[in-house]
Amino acid sequence: MPHRYFLVALGVGALLATTACSGPFPQSTLHPAGDLGFEIDRLFRLLLWLAAGVFVIVESLLIYVAIRYRARPGQPPPPRVHGHTLLEISWTLAPVVILIVVAVPTVQTILRTQRPPGAGALEVSVIGHQWWWEYRYPESGVVTANELHLPVSRPVVLSMTSADVIHSFWAPRLGGKRDVIGGRTNRIQFTPDSIGVFLGQCAEFCGESHANMGLRVVVQDSATFAAWIADQQRAPAPPDSLGAAAREGLEAYRRIRDPASNTCIICHAIQGVSGGLMGPNLTHLGSRSRIAGDMIPNTAEGLARWLRDPVAVKPGSKMPNIGLTEPEIAALVAYLQSLR
Amino acid sequence: MTPAAAHYTSTGLDNKKLAFWAFIGSECLLFGSLISTYLVYKGRSVSGPTPHEILNIPVTSVSTFDLLMSSLAMVLALAAVSRGDKVWARFWLGTTAFLGLVFLGFQYYEFTSFVREGLTIKTNLFGSTFFTLTGTHGAHVAVGVLLLLTLLVRSFQGKLGPEKAINVEVTGLYWHFVDVVWIVIFTVVYLIQ
Amino acid sequence: MATATQLSAPHDSGRSGLWSWITTTDHKRIGILYGVSAFVFFLIGGLEALFIRLQLARPDNTLVSAETFNQLFTMHGTTMVFLAIMPLSAAFFNYIVPLQIGARDVAFPRLNAFSYWVFLLGGLFLNASFLVGAAPNGGWFGYVNLTSRQYSPGLNIDFWVLGLLVLGIASLAAGFNFIVTIINLRAPGMRMMRLPVFTWMTLITQIIVVTAFPVITVGLVFLMFDRFFGTTFYSLAAGGDLLLWQHLFWLFGHPEVYILILPAMGIVSEVLPTFSRKPLFGYAVVVYSGALIGFMGWGVWAHHMFAVGLGPIADSVFGATTMLIAIPTGVKIFNWLATMWGGQVRFTTAMLFAMGFIAMFVIGGLSGVMHSNPPADLQQTDTYFVVAHLHYVLFGGAIQGLFAGIYYWFPKMTGRLLNEKLGKVHFWVTFLGMNLAFFPMHFIGLLGMPRRIYTYRPELGVETMNLVSTIGAHIIAVALLVFIYNVWRSWRRGEVAGNDPWEGATLEWTIPSPPPDYNFTVIPEVVSRLPRWSVTQMKAIPDVPPEPIHVPGGSYWPVVAALGIIGMATGAVAHALWIVLLSGAVLIFSIYRWAFEPFEG
Question: Are both A157 and A186 inside the same structural domain?
């Protein structure tokens, strides 16, 4: 009989939901860690309960009708009912009421979350690239990539645009996403309320390595954040103070190659060394926990893998495989890791 | 099946005419999208000639008048075909087609002089939207001229009697529609700047 | 009444063979052509889905490359929307609508054939891109500037733009044809408010088609001009606005989803009353709500753009209009339930699929209402939560509705019933498979997995659910195999159906299965909305025509014209102007020959 199968299916679904719903979910929208996330979550839970209610009512009616009115042999033809005006009006108005109940807090939330930011907010410029995230802090002059550091409990405004195609900045635990579009500046504002690391990734299809455009938001207490800012503002150590391997790496970094587009300094910037704007700023690469759009751990092994063949790691990568030798790679790793 | 039964329709409207009105509805959305894009991009070109600098209203007024007169000729052509007047049918059909060709001539002159003055379809937003919009309209006029010349040839073949007036009527509807679209374009692009 | 049922295959002697199918202008044959072609494309789209799911079964998987994956999901979406659901619906428009209104054929039979051939060639053109390794890879929605020449220099997007333009021509031609057919070719007494709901939904769908397709045509033409001729429509450097594409696309795209669902809703509105032995509850309301959905569908498009930053006022307005459109949709569901209430429900496979439509569409509709909420949507948009929503409404809704139509009308088209036991297996295995495949996607999305990614990190914690979804997709495939076997077996050896195996209420059940070429021996005179159930019986239709009926003999100009169109597209994608011009000449020539050949429509 149809209803039994349906209940089985429902049971299986519930079981799956519970078994699959264990463990930490670093990109979950259901565990907000900031005011924007909370606002959205509150609305979502209202919608979820209402939807669950409607679901139960409608599906129960369907199952009831299937069981109660199934054809049995020898029945006379059923009465010809063509309609019922009062019923039509009721089930048209009832959804209207439900929608108004939803609409009011919704519009309030929209206005609240899109209000112009207050004066003390921390401003960060976000620029989307294929396939990495650039961050600039106008207040402190810091330029970094992929790993966004924020102080806890201070309102932040991300002013975002794209250097190429449309991307979307999304750190789910901190709130909803916002598209990052060339030719316009979009803003997200929120106040993170928990210390921790929150993962995210690009959420608008942007080409071959759209899946490899991760990001992470590191929320720190104000002292730690201030220390981080200070570190990021400090110039890198002078070349003479570098170890032998790192100095070799600096040479490899500066080497002019053939074709010229294989030369690191054309695309990358390191304070005091080069000023390329196409790729991420590497001045403090050593301080980041991951590289390549938050895809690979920033370890000697990870860096080496990336340098050896960026295109294999990130299909379509604009950073070409320039055929570095293993000694060159080891030297570069030493140099890059020294850039804390 | 008798001819009367073959032409029975639920609304009394000929199938071709009803199809044609549906087509015009669709074309309104087509030209509407083109005109809306023109308006959205108006004044936002970052370089290149602007409408103010390059559009020639007096000359375009003449071509607009020409197109309006062609609609009048079309009406007279339909009337002539409906009453079986072969001579005047051919005259007015030919006149409509001729006036349509004159309009196309004006468009050709305008497009080539714009290109000479530095405005092509690639130059800026104005160029892209202007040439696409008026070019699409011009293509519609050209199709209309082809339809009219076809009707003219049929007339000379003796195959455009009053029983075929529906074909002339539908062509007329198309022609008037294309004319109305031009009035809108002329107003939006040339007159309101 | 018992008639000597003819067990002829769907064509009479003297009209068999490949040439008769190529030149056919008979709406019934064109319907079958649409149905078979669309089903093949549906299987291709399904294979693409299976590869997608296999790649996503494990994190960091390497079954397919990123580029291949991007082509797979682009073609899966494009194929399912334009080459599967729309033409499957068209199969029923073609076969059933003239029968339901008491007509001998559609208003413009050759235009009808033209629509089919352009669709088929357009679908082949799009898929031919795989042969040159350049299948479209910009998503079915093709956002600029990713799809501009600068960021997509290859042929992929050229195939996509040209393919869609060609398919648009097919849809528009069919749209005009059916609008005129339904308005003008109704049998005497078939007032508009006596039309079967399926025919009403067809009419509304076609009105949406002819108004929405011009908008995407313009958007695509702008993209084509940018890519081919260097125009500036979507050029940032020239001051262009990337959102122009999104507005044009979604102004088409949202009405498009109603094009996809309304016909299936029409089918459900036919099947439920038949197998409840009760008339449709609230016929007028169901019709009006369909019209209202079609109309209101124009006012909601920017709900696809809530993350774009349109501002609080636009967000609020579009949130409100989107919530409002849930109301006529919900009203239909309540009327369907009320139809069954107090009836005598027979659980044929068609009925199971119709009920399955209700069950699954409700889920999809509810997640849709969640999306209508702009702040909530900021978490949901571009994630697997939307993928769950769209598959519940399009697979759980449209596809199940279309299967209901297949089981319901297959006997009419072939004279034989599909096997009910196999049908029930098909239904339940599909039910299991679809829920396993798509329900976990709600969670996957809420836990942070975006759409359109070829792989995902294990840290997300969504691998188990992805694996379950992959298994579900394969279960759907198994169900489809059962269905294909059922069709293959039943076409020639199924139980004989007779005129009216289901005791249906509408005109198509008054004539033999399959119908003769001319459909009705005499055009019926309709006296009620439910001719076969009505107390006032209409005059009986004789078994043989009282006078000879002449049926048009077919034409090859529609095929030639279609070849001209696809030739132009091929020339464009090959950057060969001479092919474009030559094909254009073929097109114009064939239009003239078509216009002047003697053909009694």
Answer: yes
Question: Which CA distances in Å does C422 have to C174, C398, C402?
Answer: 34, 21, 17
Q: What is the DSSP letter of C418?
A: P
DSSP C426: H
Last residue of a domain, one of A62, A88, A113: A113
- For residue A14 the two structure tokens come to 């519930």
Are B30 and C219 in contact (CB < 8 Å)? Answer: no
B-chain CB neighbours of C248 within 8 Å are 33, 37
- Three-state DSSP at C453 gives coil
Asked if C405 reaches chain B (Cβ–Cβ under 8 Å), the answer is no
How far apart CA B101 and CA B138 sit, in angstroms, is 10
Residue C592 lies in a domain: no
Decide if C565 touches B, using CB distance below 8 A.
no
C431 near B CB under 8 A: no
Interchain contact, B10 vs C185, CB within 8 Å? yes
Chain A nearest-CA residue for C455? A211
Q: In the structure, do chain B and chain A come into contact, i.e. share 3 or more CB pairs under 8 Å?
A: no
Contacts of A132 (CB under 8 A, 6+ apart): A145, A146, A213, A279, A280, A292, A293
As averages over each run of 10 residues, the pLDDT of chain C (601 residues) reads 35 69 96 98 98 98 97 98 98 98 96 98 98 97 97 98 98 98 97 97 98 98 98 97 98 98 98 97 97 97 97 97 96 97 96 98 97 97 98 98 98 97 98 98 97 96 97 98 98 94 95 95 93 83 87 92 98 97 98 90 57
CB atoms within 10 A of CB C14: 7
By three-state DSSP, how is residue A59 classified?
helix
Q: Round to whole Å and give the CA distance between B145 and B171.
A: 10
Beta strands A269-270; A274-275: pairing state: antiparallel
Q: For chain B, list the domains and their CATH numbers.
A: 14-42+55-191 (1.20.120.80)
The range of the structural domain enclosing residue C406 comes to 31-551
Find the radius of gyration of the CA atoms of chain B.
19
pLDDT tens digits, A263-301: 999 999 999 999 999 999 999 999 999 999 999 999 999
Q: Chain A residues with CB inside 8 Å of C440's CB? A: 16, 20
- Between CA A149 and CA C304 the distance in angstroms is 31
How far is CA C82 from its chain centroid? 7
ipTM summary value: 0.96
Point out the domain boundary residue: A66, A86, A113.
A113
Residues A96 and A37 in one domain: yes
Q: Is the pTM of this model over 0.90?
A: yes
User: CA-CA distance, A210 to A222, in Å (whole number)?
Assistant: 33
Rounded Cα distance between C84 and C45, Å, is: 8
Chains B and C touch (3+ CB pairs under 8 A): yes
Tokens at A95, concatenated: 């959804």
Ramachandran bin of C526, using left for φ above 0, alpha for ψ from -120 to 50, beta for the remaining angles: beta
On whether both A203 and A283 belong to a single domain, the answer is: no
Residue A131 half-sphere exposure, CB side, CA atoms within 13 Å?
A: 31
Per the structure, how many domains does chain A have?
3
Please tell me if residue C180 touches chain B, with a CB cutoff of 8 Å.
yes
CATH of the domain at C248: 1.20.210.10
Q: Quote the number of domains for chain C.
A: 1
- Give the pLDDT of residue B4: 41
Residues A44 and A88 in one domain: yes
Q: Is C211's Cβ below 8 Å from some Cβ in B? A: yes
Residue type at A191? T
Quick check: C217 and B121 CB within 8 A? no
Which residues in C lie closer than 8 A to residue B132 (C-beta atoms)?
221-222, 225, 231
CATH of the domain at A168: 2.60.40.420
Range of the domain at A106: 2-113
* A13 closest CB neighbour out of C366, C377, C439: C439
